[in-house]
C-alpha cells in the first residue's frame, strides 16, 4: 500500500453499495467524503465511519442537477482536501419498453447514470493530475456489457458509462490515473424498491452490497503499478 494517506470521495453513499463501500474503506483506514441526496442517512454513515477511526464528512448533493455537479464537487474537494480515489456509485434503475419511455424519463436516466459521473470526474481530475496519481472506480453494471428487454434506457446509460470509463482510462494513463469499470450483476439494494423499477427477481440470489464493496476496496488498494480496467462480478447462483 502507498505511504500516502488514501482519501476517497464516494457518491450514492447513504445506502446500498455506496454505504457498504464507505464502511469497508473506513475499516481499511481510508478517509472518506460521502455524497448523496439523503442528508440524515449520509450523516449516519459518516458517523459510523468516524467511529472506525477515519476522517469522514457528509456532503448532501443532488447529482441529478447535473449543471451544478462540477462546481459542487470542486467545492467538496476544496473543503475535504485532496482526493486520490473516486468511486462513482450513484445511479438509478428504470424499466419500461423503449417505445413507452418518455423523453423526460430518458433524460433523467442519462443525466444521473452517465452525465453526473462525467461531471464528478471533471471535479476531481485536475487534482489527481496535479498529484500525478489517482484511482477512479465507476460502478457500471452487467447492463453495460449486455442488454436486457425492458431495461433499454438503463442499458444505454450503462453502455455509455462503460465507454466513458474506457476512454478516460486511455486518456489519463500517462498522468498516473487508473480507471476501473466495475460491472456487477444483480445486487440486493434499495434500487429494487424504487418507483422507476418494476421487476420481480429473487433478491436472496443476488450479490450483497458488502461483496461488491470488498471488490471496490480491492481495486482501490492495488499497487499503483497495476490496474484492473474491467471487472465483472456475478452472483454464483441465479441468472444475472
From TrEMBL:
Enzyme class: oxidoreductase
One Gene Ontology molecular-function label: oxidoreductase activity, acting on the CH-OH group of donors, NAD or NADP as acceptor
InterPro entries named in the record: NAD(P)-bd_dom_sf, SDR_fam
Coiled-coil residue windows: none
EC number, UniProt record: 1.-.-.-, 1.1.1.-
Keywords assigned: Oxidoreductase
Superkingdom classification of source: Bacteria
Any one GO cellular component localisation term in the record: membrane
Pfam annotation, one family: adh_short
Xref: NCBIfam families: PRK07454.1
Family per record: Belongs to the short-chain dehydrogenases/reductases (SDR) family.
Designated name of the protein: Oxidoreductase YoxD
Organism: Planktothrix agardhii (Oscillatoria agardhii)
The organism's taxonomic lineage, starting at the top: Bacteria, Bacillati, Cyanobacteriota, Cyanophyceae, Oscillatoriophycideae
Amino acid at each position: 500500500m502507498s505511504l500516502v494517506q488514501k482519501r476517497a470521495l464516494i457518491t450514492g453513499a447513504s445506502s446500498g453499495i455506496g454505504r457498504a463501500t464507505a464502511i469497508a474503506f473506513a475499516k481499511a483506514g481510508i478517509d472518506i467524503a460521502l455524497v448523496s441526496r439523503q442528508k440524515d442517512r449520509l450523516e449516519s454513515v459518516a458517523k459510523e465511519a468516524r467511529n472506525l477511526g477515519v476522517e469522514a464528512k457528509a456532503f448532501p448533493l443532488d447529482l441529478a442537477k447535473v449543471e451544478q455537479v462540477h462546481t459542487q464537487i470542486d467545492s467538496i474537494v476544496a473543503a475535504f482536501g485532496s482526493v486520490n480515489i473516486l468511486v462513482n456509485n450513484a445511479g438509478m434503475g428504470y424499466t419500461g419498453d423503449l417505445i413507452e419511455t418518455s423523453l423526460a424519463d430518458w433524460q433523467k436516466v442519462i443525466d444521473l447514470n452517465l452525465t453526473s459521473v462525467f461531471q464528478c470526474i471533471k471535479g476531481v481530475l485536475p487534482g489527481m493530475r496535479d498529484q500525478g496519481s489517482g484511482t477512479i472506480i465507476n460502478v457500471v453494471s452487467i447492463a453495460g456489457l449486455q442488454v436486457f428487454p425492458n431495461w433499454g434506457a438503463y442499458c444505454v446509460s450503462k453502455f455509455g458509462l462503460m465507454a466513458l470509463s474506457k476512454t478516460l482510462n486511455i486518456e489519463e494513463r500517462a498522468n498516473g490515473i487508473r480507471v476501473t469499470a466495475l460491472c456487477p450483476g444483480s445486487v440486493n439494494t434499495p434500487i429494487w424498491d424504487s418507483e422507476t423499477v418494476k421487476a420481480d427477481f429473487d433478491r436472496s440470489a443476488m450479490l450483497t452490497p458488502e461483496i461488491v464493496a470488498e471488490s471496490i476496496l480491492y481495486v482501490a488498494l492495488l499497487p499503483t503499478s497495476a490496474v484492473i480496467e474491467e471487472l465483472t462480478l456475478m452472483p454464483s447462483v441465479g441468472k444475472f
